[in-house]
Design goal:
heterodimer; A: mainly alpha; Formate dehydrogenase/DMSO reductase fold; B: alpha+beta; Alpha-Beta Plaits; three-stranded mixed β-sheet; 9 helices; about 15% strand
Chain lengths: ~375, ~350
């Protein structure tokens, strides 16, 4: 099972309807960001002191980076659990992760109120080893660098730098190990971020096991995104869907989902707060919507037969992406309460920047896959 | 199938490393206590007359602009603390508002400003040490030259105190620092300095706590002496100043002031010193006639969230033991599984 088709550029025109629309959204985002840097955060966002973190942090960074865990999830499966048959999925997933994380990193800068001081994050005289955010920042920075090196063979291949590529390959195993460890560290810590918020976070989400919840859902979202993207890329590029890979991958994913549901329900029961979910409140409702997103996939792709249906995989993938996103939204925004009648709903420019971030990713993904050897060579895969 | 065997090996190695490293004993971090020389404020709501002199003095001492909530914008009328308002007196109203400090048909005041926690969430949260707690006087201070504006302190604080200046492209975090910039001139917190009734009193938190408990122990309606401005320790002596006696300071460097103790009547207190135990204790303490939750002070446990957060962090990452162990296991497994021909053709 270790022989597989080499990746190749998809080819085709770079300018089409999708890239044009994405380009317009990116330009709009750039204009809004220019305005933000000149006039301050208040000029373009609805942020306030009751909700100092809005969608740029919770969606672009927290959810965005979890969606970018495809590379980590698939690489772990292939290299750590030695499932070489999934190898063709590694490069496309790695590219999406690379873009997702690089943009999440950029998104942090847009949100920083005093961004010119950001070097303090890496300055030994300033760092605070007790801070969860320090750990998150260091790990994400390191992971972005590791992913660029992991992905560099694609570029070296394109430009025929064989020697350098061969040297790099010798140490690839260490990069893979680092590329597995770092996301485990910061994805779990993204959840630990809300522990210090104490009672301000609703008890259905405020738990000391939150690092484990975030780690498991990041892995799940990684696989879910691979399912989602594979289906989408196949449809968009009119390529065959790699069902031979996706069907067993979905089974692996469901295993992680089962573990997550057990930990999540076990935790709220053991801490004695499950009753809070039955109270008539937005938080109670959101808890069960979040839970349903993780349970419904068992009904949709629970059997081997169902997992052979790409439409079902696609829907299950979307539900799990939503579930993981709700966990993050619920803890940081919906179940977060500072007490004093503050309200937050993202302003239009804020939404447009988030949309622009996703458009940037789609745009670069299309440009790169059309010109660089990332996706499996069509025909050889079937 | 060999791939299945390797799969299991990989799984075992990875979990083994995690469990092995996790089993090493890690000390849970306890909630920190106030340092012995901690400085703070005592706010006694029953003495407050709602004149807001403390708000004006705070604005002046910290060079903050006025904020408006009325149409005609005549004077400073903030509705809450903000990046430009570090101190505010809020009002509780109920029914006919006949009686001061009564919960029903009454009204009351409450001061909102930084509590200077013994174990502050903002200090634990700040990634770049822009929020620090002085090891001697315990003041929670802010350094804008380090601050990256991430606003994790704003999110973390259980009292909602650090606030960001969203209206400014170079915005800072704003919060009370007990006027630490005035201490070198022998001057203490401006709010306490100007308070006409001594409702806001500056001093060592230990002394303030003793004073608060003294008041709680007295019968409501009985007459007692109330200090004003800075609470002096019973044994405090002034050092000799210049010839004319001006510029006299005490051993801690506070300027000499005329004794302003006055006689007044003890109010009807809720028998609780807010801040003595909350969140592991705070350096700003409060007394009130109306229950603290009604006047906007959150009901907090006697331990800090910083302790929980740092225990989790240091259990997982203390000395980087666990990450290094896991990295070792992952490298070992990956070395066997990354095929040398992987990059050659794919």
């Amino acid at each position: 099972m270790t022989t597989h088709s080499a990746p190749a550029p998809v080819g085709g025109p770079l300018l089409n309807k999708v890239t044009f629309i994405a380009g317009v959204l990116v330009a709009l985002m750039a204009a809004i960001l220019l305005y933000r840097f000149i006039f301050g955060l208040g000029a373009v966002t609805d942020l306030n002191d009751g909700y100092p973190w809005g969608i740029w942090i919770v969606v672009d960074v927290m959810i965005g980076s979890a969606l970018a865990c495809g590379g980590f999830s698939v690489a772990m499966l292939v290299y750590i659990f030695n499932r070489g048959e999934y190898h063709p999925l590694v490069r496309p997933a790695l590219l999406a992760s690379l873009l997702g994380y690089t943009l999440a990193g950029a998104g942090v800068i847009f949100d920083l109120g005093r961004w010119w001081n950001v070097w303090n994050m890496y300055w030994p005289g300033s760092v605070n080893l007790n801070s969860v955010m320090f750990e998150v920042a260091i790990c994400i920075t390191a992971y972005i660098v590791v992913m660029w090196i992991e992905f560099s063979p694609v570029v070296l291949e394109k430009f025929g730098l064989k020697d350098l590529k061969r040297k790099l390959n010798k140490y690839l195993f260490f990069l893979v190990a680092l590329g597995t460890l770092l996301p485990m560290m910061h994805q779990s810590s993204l959840g630990t971020l809300w522990v210090v918020l104490g009672q301000q976070v609703h008890p259905l989400w405020q738990t000391p096991v939150v690092p484990l919840l975030f780690l498991l859902t990041a892995i799940i979202m990684g696989y879910a995104v691979v399912l989602f993207e594979s289906c989408l890329a196949s449809a968009a590029y009119r390529r065959g869907i790699e069902m031979k890979l996706l069907t067993p991958l979905a089974k692996v994913m469901l295993g992680v989902v089962a573990a997550y549901v057990a930990v999540r329900l076990g935790d709220v029961i053991v801490r004695g707060v499950i009753g809070r979910s039955f109270q008539l409140s937005l938080e109670g409702l959101m808890f069960w919507i979040e839970m349903a997103c993780f349970v419904a996939p068992f009904l949709i792709i629970g059997t081997e037969n169902q997992r052979r249906n790409p439409a079902r995989l696609f829907v299950a993938g979307i539900l799990l992406i939503l579930g993981g996103s709700f966990l993050r939204l619920n803890g940081f925004l919906i179940g977060y309460d500072t007490g004093a009648g503050f309200r937050y709903f993202p302003a239009l420019p804020e939404l447009l920047v988030t949309l622009g971030m996703f458009a940037t990713e789609v745009l670069i993904y299309i440009l790169v896959t059309r010109r660089f050897p990332v996706l499996p060579r069509e025909g050889a895969a079937h | 199938m060999s791939s299945r065997r390797d799969f299991l090996k990989g799984a075992l190695a990875a979990t083994g490393a995690i469990v092995g490293a996790g089993a090493t004993p890690v000390q849970a971090r306890d909630t920190y206590h106030r340092p012995p020389e901690a400085m703070g404020l005592l706010y006694d709501a029953t003495l407050c007359i709602g004149c807001k002199a403390c708000m004006a003095a705070c604005k002046e001492a910290n060079n903050n602009p006025a904020e408006f909530s009325t149409v005609d914008k005549l004077w400073d009328t903030p509705l809450d603390t903000s990046g430009h308002t570090y101190n505010i007196i809020k009002m509780y109203r109920n029914g006919t508002m006949d009686t001061k400090d009564a919960e029903i048909n009454g009204y009351a005041f409450m001061k909102t400003s930084c509590m200077h926690c013994a174990d502050p969430s903002c200090v634990s949260a700040c990634p770049v040490s822009a929020m620090t707690k002085d090891p001697v006087n315990g003041i929670v201070a802010y350094d804008p030259d380090k601050c990256i504006g991430c606003r994790y302190c704003v999110v973390a604080c259980p009292f909602g105190i650090p606030k960001y200046q969203y209206d400014d492209p170079l915005g800072r975090i704003g919060k009370c620092e007990l006027c630490r910039h005035r201490h070198k001139d022998g001057r203490y917190s401006a709010c306490a300095e100007v308070c006409p009734t001594g409702a806001t009193l500056f001093g060592r938190t230990e002394d303030l706590l003793a004073e608060a408990k003294r008041r709680l122990a007295l019968k409501p309606g009985s007459v007692t002496k109330f200090p004003r401005g800075r609470l002096r320790h019973a044994t405090e002596k002034m050092l000799q100043g210049k010839e004319d006696g001006k510029g006299r300071k005490n051993r801690q460097g506070w300027r000499d002031e005329p004794d302003q103790i006055y006689e007044g009547t003890i109010g009807k207190y809720v028998q609780h010193v807010y801040g003595e135990k909350e969140y592991g204790g705070t350096q700003v303490l409060k007394l009130s006639g109306v229950s603290f939750e009604k006047v906007g002070m959150p009901n907090l446990p006697p331990y800090s969230s910083a302790a929980t957060s740092e225990t989790i962090q240091h259990t997982l990452y203390g000395g980087l033991l666990m990450p290094i162990a896991v990295l070792g296991a992952l490298s070992w497994v990956a070395r066997r599984n990354v095929k040398p021909d992987d990059g050659e053709e794919g």
